[in-house]
Amino acid sequence: MSQDGTTIASASDDKTIKLWSRDGKLLQTLKGHNDGIDNISLSPNATVIVSSSSDGTVKLWSRDGELLQTHKQQTYKVAKIGFSSDRNFIIASNNEEKTIRLWSENGKQLRIIRGHNNAIWNIGFSPDGETIATASADHTVKLWSKGGKLLQTLKGHTGEITNASFSPDGKILVTTSYDNTIKLWSRDGKELKTLRGHHHDVTSVSFNPDGQIFATASFDKTIKIWRIDGKLLQTLKGHRDGIWNISFSPDGQILASVSPDKTVKLWSSNGKLLQTLKGHNEEVTNVAFSPDGKMIASTGADKIVKLWSRDGKELRTLNGHKDEVWGVRFSPDGQILATSDKDKTIKLWSRDGKELGTLKGHSDAVWSVVFSPDGQTLASASRDKSVILWNWKDSLDSDLNRLLGRACDWTRDYLKNNPNVSEGDKYLCDGIGAVSFITR
């Protein structure tokens, strides 16, 4: 039954689904499965029906009986299927495989990586895009193939691991931890070196683009600059509180740092404090440079994202998140900014600050986001112990198509029937809207 109690759906071994009114009137018969139907579920507003069958498929239907999408699942039988309470994604479970699969509302299956036993604080791609590293509160780093296969688990830290970053040549992985140490690992998972020097949680690491030095940040209020062989070169002091995150500019000339002291600080490559940026009203949580180095994005517990010029001028403030913002990263071409928050969502923005779309799929705070080197995949890491790999361009296309479809649904009659509309313009909306997408 739908949540509003007005519609009842029934499924049968006769391969059909029937929709009934509350008073027992048959509204619609849905046909399309080739075998008996095992499970059905109505979306909360009863506009979409999802069904699974012994024919190995999951189907999405509109309320008027149109088949919207078919997903083939020959490798497993769906034990239960349904919509999330907010109807942002569809859930299918299988008892034999012990798996849960998610589809976004537009029917795109989300690739979900599970394996950690606690929150995943950070995620990073290798420069060649073939390997993903995840840093977790379970004291481990896991290396995965880009397809989600677990390659290796790195153990050695005695505290929660806050960050994992590949060197620009992809040969070294550096990890930071609440055990106050930094560890260097080979690409194949061998522990090479442990660096000590911080006196509190080590929270972040960033490589200079030349790969010869890297910086680490800590809640001891310092940034340390290290040579790749482990030699400590410099300690930077200036923040009045611990430091959450740091990021080198693409040319390696500036290092940006953010802190609960509500500031973003810019440092020269030789350790001189260049500027302190003020604008956030609460602690600043993360920072990233655009690929061309001309723009800096900062996120805060004040639920906002700020864009700054390289010389420290505040350009604009992005509003839209409903909770603390923790993840931030530019796409490789610099045209898209991804941010994530404690409200389980990821937002995509244009470079000029326009909100383009929202990705939903996690069930808890999303701490980190990162684009693959080719820009085709967006990976997100969450307190729900999972990583989701998003085909974010499809998600954007879906949002744009939905908006375009709605616009055409409103104007189609006008275009067709107004004598002042040119003959060519009468057909602008043909094939757009109506049955082209699923509306909320």
Write the layout of secondary structure elements.
Layout lengths: L6 E5 L4 E6 L4 E6 L5 E6 L5 E6 L3 E6 L4 E6 L7 E4 L5 E6 L4 E6 L4 E6 L5 E6 L5 E6 L3 E6 L4 E6 L5 E6 L5 E6 L3 E6 L4 E6 L5 E6 L5 E6 L3 E6 L4 E6 L7 E4 L5 E5 L4 E6 L4 E6 L5 E6 L5 E6 L4 E5 L4 E5 L6 E6 L5 E6 L3 E6 L4 E6 L5 E6 L6 E5 L3 E5 L1 H26 L23
Antiparallel strand pairs: 1-2, 2-3, 4-5, 5-6, 6-7, 8-9, 9-10, 10-11, 11-38, 12-13, 13-14, 14-15, 16-17, 17-18, 18-19, 20-21, 21-22, 22-23, 24-25, 25-26, 26-27, 28-29, 29-30, 30-31, 32-33, 33-34, 34-35, 36-37, 37-38
Short recap of the structure:
The protein is mainly beta and 440 residues long.
What does this structure look like?
The protein is mainly beta. It contains one helix and 38 strands. It has a seven-stranded antiparallel beta sheet with strand order 8-9-10-11-38-37-36. Strands 4-5-6-7 form a four-stranded antiparallel beta sheet, with no helix packed on it. Strand 24 and strand 25 form a beta hairpin. The longest helix has 26 residues. The radius of gyration is 25 Å and the shape is globular. The C terminus is likely disordered.
